[in-house]
Amino acid sequence: MPVAVVCVLALIPIAYLLIRASGVGDDALRLLFRPRSVQLLLTSVVVCLGTATGAIALGVPLAWLTLRTDLPGRRAWTALVVAPLAVPSYLLAYAFVAALAPDGPARDLLGPVGLAGWLPGPHGVAGAIVVLTLSTYPLVLLATRAALTRVDPSTAEVARSLGDGPIRAFRNGTLPMLLPAVAAGALLAALYALSDFGSVAILRADTFARAIASQYNASLDRTTAALFSLVLMLLAFGLVLLEWRIRRRHAIRVPASGRRTPRPVVLGRWRWPALALCASVVLLALVVPALTVLAWLVRAWAGAPGGASIPAPVADVLGPASASIMIAGSAAVVGTLLVVPIAIVQARFPGRLAAASRLATSAAFAIPGISFALAAVFASLALVPGLYRTVPVLVLVLAVRHLALGAAPVTGSVMLVGRGVTDAARSLGDGPSRAAWRVGLPLVRPGIIAGAVLLFLTILKELPVSLFLVPPGTRTLATRLWTEATEGGYVAAAAPAAALLLISLLSVGWLLRSPTASPA
């Protein structure tokens, strides 16, 4: 019953989109097959697949390097390559635009050596793929690391004893067993790319998500926006089915007794390229946005020329910061309570209900935030008009929208706990509930904590739903950052950007403390 209720909550936006899209009538096919719509579809697919491919290309090698090799400073690099999870994609997009502007620091730095002309512009599809890849690769990295801790290293060790090098042994012996985890992380990256609005709007990439926002903001055209959102939902269903097939074909369960600490792979001459890869990713995904925010702060508090206004004092940021923490924390708690029964069903009782819950939560995550927010407005006005634009509705909407992200680490933890553990407790006289509480819960607690922190971190950075549903008089760090950056300039956004980045980095540090901090 709890899982069915969660599915209904996640399907409310889909019902709203179907109702709205039905208003198009016979013009639906004409709208979908006009050249502009086809171009938006192709661009969305390219950005989605490009982001997923890029996230795999970065996440899998970084997970292997930081867990299975003798990479110098491995512990420090582990924290640094995960830290970009704290950077909102729209903040990273702002940083790239500022750095690659004609008068930006990147061109000033490379100008004396004649390389400034080789720098690409930040706008367009390529820029969106780069930014979204750097924003989402930690999801694949965490998933792969968690899977690597469960995979017996003997297969790769045997391959190496037969003459294979470390990379070939990993590709042939270990990677096939990691495919389900890699697919799970790539699915989340792809769904995020489908639904992202902030970064594609900043980088001027013509995707369906940006078109949906434009349709609503420019002409309040909810019907066309709903039709486009349904297209994204269908793409999400296709991605979920593909990931499900990969997970089913390559599912490998490793008993806890079969795991052992592997010997680190000696990188040898590959040590320097490995360090270069780690340093490059950290530079682009973490250092550039951090330095950009720092530059904004310096200019703000120094009273930068050119009419840039000095942002409000730090005391004025405390209000949005406390509101963000309260809303994200409450939504994370609600989401975790909803996620646990979903994770149990998906891990222990594969069937129609498990498949329905996975499709429903994934569709909710893939629907553009603006469409999800409009669905919440419609549902709250129709069902509980007195709660429209209140904190309870905002918390519930944020929790339901991000269930797919929170369910992943909990499902992974439940899959690791064999039924024999709780069966043994029941054979000693414990009932089902007592056995689950005394034996099962301690074993899956790390995954539950990881899911809650991941929900908090993601919701803290969430933008479109908050823009539409934050109660009057309440401002979060994300909404204030977006408003100040679009209306008052980057300098005016310095204080909320710095506060958001600091809180997110602290959340990532907490996430790293969990042994199963993974969306796998």
Mind explaining what this structure looks like?
The protein is mostly helical and 520 residues long. It has a single domain, classed as MetI-like fold (Orthogonal Bundle). It contains 23 helices and no strands. Helix 3 packs parallel to helix 7, helix 14 packs across helix 18 and helix 22 runs antiparallel to helix 23. It is globular and about 65 Å long.
| N-to-C order of helices and strands | HHHHHHHHHHHHHHHHHHHHHHH
CATH class: Mainly Alpha
Unreliable stretches, pLDDT < 50, 5 or more residues? 254-258, 304-313, 516-520
Name the CATH homologous superfamily: MetI-like
Question: In the CATH classification, which architecture applies?
Answer: Orthogonal Bundle
**What is the typical, i.e. mean, pLDDT?**
76
What's the shape? Answer: globular
Biggest sheet, in brief? none
Q: Strand percentage, roughly? A: under 5%
- Which class do the helix and strand fractions yield? mainly alpha
Reconstruct the topology from this structure.
Blueprint: H1 2-21, H2 28-33, H3 35-68, H4 74-82, H5 89-99, H6 105-110, H7 125-148, H8 154-161, H9 166-195, H10 198-203, H11 208-219, H12 222-250, H13 271-301, H14 314-348, H15 352-366, H16 369-383, H17 391-401, H18 403-416, H19 419-427, H20 432-461, H21 464-469, H22 477-488, H23 494-512
Helix pairs in contact: 1-12, 1-15, 1-16, 3-4, 3-7, 3-9, 5-7, 5-13, 7-9, 8-9, 9-12, 11-12, 12-15, 13-23, 14-15, 14-17, 14-18, 14-20, 14-23, 18-20, 19-20, 20-23, 22-23
